[in-house]
């Protein structure tokens, strides 16, 4: 007899290390991996960070993964930068969007939310919670928003920017309706590539991690255009869209294009009453990390100013990830600082007015 | 007997007109259609322009389709604007990229090229020809570039910006190799959505024509990133990438992101010797139509100046399409005009130096 399908195993993929060229040995030895037995189930992306996407210095001295130790997070982030509030977005939880099974995805999202409200919310009034939902299950997402969206620590809903379709599509309207009813923004956070979700560019699959990471801004653009064109904020005026980690420099270019194309062909979307850029200015907020760095800073701020960017940008660090923006060294124009570092987020998330205090030494200077 | 699959027909889809609401009656009556018996075979896009994408005033008085009558093209474009040269890109020919059968696609491209060289090239020395290839058949594309790329009227190769994968991918290298050998740029022209090609955004299928049209800039971004990351210009230094009709305002934002991500993770692409923006400045050119229109023009030009945009932009009108940019009314900064309206294209396409002449009244003023 001949058996023509037998699988030979290994205990660890590390057996391949001696057989790899040095540059790829480095990927396999130190890079991002889909995870073992205790990892969170999600469709892992095909673009693996060659060193893993954590800042090595965020590993807590007490052991465990980055950003799992509250005291160390205080030391490295909340106290160090004297933050009034930190919007927590979890880590892998939002990646439920990549799963084919929408019921399992919603079940994992519910478990994630109960865990984060049980264990993180009570720790510190400065921590504000984002609840995760599975957008591929819009009715389940709506039910979850209504179930936990009223918890006093909850400030927003989060989904990945990777998706099967753009979020303005009627398929997702139950999710927007529930968010509006609960007066919560929905944040589309960079991620969720892989699994059942679309490729992250308009040209099919890119190749390298750095190439892909730079191009992930395209996911933010696509959702922005879709949500504006479908008139989500005409239908559901008490929610907002927050684009997290998609960058900000592209925003003027895309809004100029959307305004021009809408103006020419507005008969396609008769439910809109204002220009796309006008809806964006009122209903869309964009976090700053990773902030683009032109040779001439005016090249960024002059463009952003043209679309009222001072009212739309909100500071974010992305702690504990590799491309962290440090509040002490990230530069904003002096007349933008109060709005971007504080005021815009405080208004969006309806956080109490800041107490007068000493000027934090160097913060955002 | 019961036959459970019988098809009832109509002579024309116009039978549906009385049954449609007014706004969609307009789409069906006046909008873009996939075409009848004599149309060119391609996988038609799912995003149909609600009025068709031609300027109505370009229909020749002699009958026929827009831009089919040479004398009328002279009257409306070449003579009216006193053009030294016009780079012809054909019309539907490049859409062969959407076909599943790469051999048929290449055969249609060859026929298209022979037709355009037979009928258009001899008409006027001002007309420069772009030969079409089927990128999904890279060896066939390379053979076609070598077959007709040496014709004295040929100035570049054109493919659609819609594609199955980004054009830096090794799959496409035979096409780049042949273009470099023949000293021809490859233009990726907006289009080629539909058929076997990728959805035009990084979030799955958008919905409306105007939304999609604004977002088609994402196809240009994806190819730009891919071609730079794969080091196409290190391997094939005698070709260039021209992005046609993808807009220009996003270019600084994307290059800033690419530079930052490359700098952080350049070990992934050790064949690169310079920053992505430095390769782009030397090897990538971008046509200006549809030129974005900020409220404050400086918001556009300051950003473009940061990446050396004056050396990269080339004027284009998109005649005879609906969103034509008129050379008399499109505004460029005074110190950019010579390069953008003339010098950059003349250098790229190796066209003879301009003869001294009277200042064309008003052109680009």
From TrEMBL, chains A, B:
UniProt-listed InterPro entries: ACMSD, Amidohydro-rel, Metal_Hydrolase
Keyword Lyase: yes
Cellular component terms per the entry's GO annotation: cytoplasm
A GO MF label: carboxy-lyase activity
Domain Amidohydrolase-related, residue spans: 42-351
Keyword Transmembrane among UniProt keywords: no
Keywords annotated in UniProt: Lyase
GO BP annotations listed: secondary metabolic process
Matches recorded under PANTHER family: 2-AMINO-3-CARBOXYLMUCONATE-6-SEMIALDEHYDE DECARBOXYLASE, ISO-OROTATE DECARBOXYLASE (EUROFUNG)
Name used for this protein in its record: Amidohydrolase-related domain-containing protein
Organism: Murinocardiopsis flavida
């Amino acid at each position: 007899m001949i058996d023509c399908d037998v699988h030979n195993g290994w205990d660890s993929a590390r057996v391949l290390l001696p057989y790899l060229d040095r540059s790829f040995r480095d990927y396999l030895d130190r890079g991002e991996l889909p995870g073992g037995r205790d990892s969170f189930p999600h469709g892992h992306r095909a673009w693996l960070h060659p060193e893993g996407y954590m800042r090595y210095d965020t590993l807590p001295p007490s052991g465990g993964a980055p950003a799992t130790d509250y005291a160390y997070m205080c030391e490295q982030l909340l106290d160090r930068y004297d933050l009034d509030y930190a919007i927590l977005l979890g880590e892998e939880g939002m990646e439920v969007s990549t799963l084919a099974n929408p019921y399992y995805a919603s079940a994992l999202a519910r478990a994630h939310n109960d865990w984060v409200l049980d264990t993180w919310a009570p720790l510190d009034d400065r921590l504000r919670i984002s609840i995760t939902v599975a957008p591929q299950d819009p009715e389940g997402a709506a039910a979850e928003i209504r179930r936990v969206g009223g918890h006093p620590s909850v400030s927003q809903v989060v989904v990945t920017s990777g998706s099967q379709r753009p979020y303005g599509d009627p398929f997702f309207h139950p999710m927007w309706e529930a968010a509006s009813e609960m007066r919560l923004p929905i944040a589309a956070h960079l991620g969720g590539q892989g699994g059942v979700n679309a490729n992250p560019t308009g040209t099919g699959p890119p190749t390298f991690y750095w190439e892909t990471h730079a191009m992930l801004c395209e996911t933010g653009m696509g959702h922005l255009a879709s949500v504006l064109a479908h008139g989500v904020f005409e239908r559901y005026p008490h929610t907002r869209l927050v684009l997290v980690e998609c960058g900000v420099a592209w925003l003027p270019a895309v809004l100029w294009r959307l305004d021009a194309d809408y103006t020419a062909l507005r008969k396609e979307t008769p439910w809109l009453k204002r220009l796309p850029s006008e809806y964006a200015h009122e209903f869309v907020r964009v976090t700053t990390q990773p902030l683009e760095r032109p040779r001439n800073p005016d090249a960024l701020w002059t463009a952003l100013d043209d679309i009222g960017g001072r009212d739309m940008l909100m500071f974010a660090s992305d702690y504990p990830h590799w491309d962290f923006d440090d509040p002490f060294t990230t530069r904003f124009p002096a007349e933008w600082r109060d709005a971007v570092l504080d005021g815009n987020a405080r208004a969006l998330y309806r956080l109490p007015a800041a107490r007068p205090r000493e000027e934090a030494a160097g913060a955002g200077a």
